[in-house]
Design a protein that fits this description.
Structural class: alpha/beta
Radius of gyration: 23 Å
Number of strands: 24
Number of helices: 17
Helix content: 25-40%
Shape: globular
Strand content: 15-25%
Length: 605
Amino acid sequence: MKRLGLPLLLCFALLCLALPAAAGAAKKGVIGLGEKRVEALIELHHPRGLNHFVRAVSDPSSPRYRDYASVEQLVNRFGAKEKTQRKVLSWLAARGVRGEVSPTGMQVFATLSRRQAGALRPATARASAAAGVSARVPAALRSAVARVALLSTRTAATHHVGATEAGIEAGEAGSAGAAKPGEPYRSILPHSGTAAGCAEGSSGGIEPGLEPFTPNQYLTAYGHAALHARGLTGKGQKVALVETGGFKHSDIVTFGRCFGFKPPPIKVVPVKVGKPLPAEDETTLDLSMLTVGAPGLEKIYVYEGPESLGGVALTAGTALGTPGHRPDVISISLGFCEPELAGNLALRNAFDNVFAVAAGAGISVLVSAGDQGSSGCRAKDGKTGETTALPMTTVSLPASSPYVTAVGGTNLALSRKNRIKAEVVWNDSVLTPWGGGGGSSLISPRTPWWQAGIDRYGPGRKVPDIAALADLIPGYALYCTAVPSCLSPGQKASGWTSVGGTSAAAPLMAAGVALANQYAAGRGQRDLGFLNPLLYQLGAKGKARAGAFTDVVTGNNDLGRALPPEAGGGKPLGCCQAKTGYDWASGWGSLKLPGFARLAAAADR
């Protein structure tokens, strides 16, 4: 999962003191004296009740299940009144600022100079150093505005997750689990199953024994291939990607040709960036997963926008589409460490409003849960330039939104026919601090209604909901020539490589949902929409759970042993362990797509 290098805030300043180099690197993201522009996110007063509408159309036991409204109807009903929007836009215009109403009609975005931001100055001087802080609502706007956030526009380079980073030799990969009593858990596995495709793609540029999984393997393992054989390839479905980088179409074509797939039609939609962005690994990976997972898609929309907090929120809203161009599924492989947001309600609500509108309109949203295990924050060492997870248990936004399906990470052991022999939680901490994200949300403290049955985990939004292949070793084969982001350490030329991360798991499962939507359409039903109420209902019933999920019961996503001892690492953090049924290391486990599609159709009585 791509991490956006935003600052470590006041809420864990003591931790930063314990890791001075990382703290120094973190200062890049704060709203400091050197930053000339800041983002303002202004939450408008708007009608309530959207959550109740979403529950009515998403709960399989509701008489209104899948009785969706259009995006336009939801925005008209639950967005701020036009008079309210005009008041805020006029107030900004009088100060030389051009505001933009969000696609949900519930927020206004604006970019301000430091002087202009003075009218929305933070409530305290202490808070002024933070990247996402609550600001004062001017008296003239209190009838129109609920709250304001000032956000940094600064970002850091994204991180390419590549299997060669681990520096493992073929002989070191073995059975997942603790090698000896008392030793840490490991999910690293050698290549298994039977690969297929062109020689270059099948090798992934990796030494024998560690070559990556090829599409025929994971598509068979999760059931995409079985649905393809029944003519379910995503026909009539549209998928939107939320991205902060671009891609080379020739890379997607080369990847598909190697494994016998032709990319669906792709349309790029720039958001606040003027033109399509330079190619990079993340977007290339997402498109490759959709190409093989749902090759018959009617269209893939790639929404490319800024990396900043406000920029990603606006891009996610824009991905709701326009009349005639609405997606059926949205996939997002981006995230922000929750503590970095300082509990900022305006930003959290901006994401939640977008995803609630999507849910009410029958659009499924899948978000990668992150690659930092249960320690969802990362910092860069200013001396070495290396990035590491921080020893604190947390998750990332927008995966922690109660209106999305968060996808965690696993690794696979396959039979010769590419059936799943074992699936375990992704945790490579014996070599490098990477693992599937999961835990409990800090900024969504209420338990969502659909998650109320998970009593043993206490209050709050629990992450993930499902999981899929993400381990770096053996990882996924990928073709990418977007230099330098596609180069793994030690690799001299871009091209075929091996990658991992929940960034791959999310779009792969999004493709599977598109296939399940087509299955439902063939029975005269509407799209599955917001998945979680259905997932948790299926998970609560033993027979349905066995039909819909591969239960992941081995491993944990605790990276504590791999983190710097001087910063509090070097020992387990205490979260999170896989168990029978739901757990916050792997959710309900991975989807058995044919069974899930059948059970999802049966739920729409």
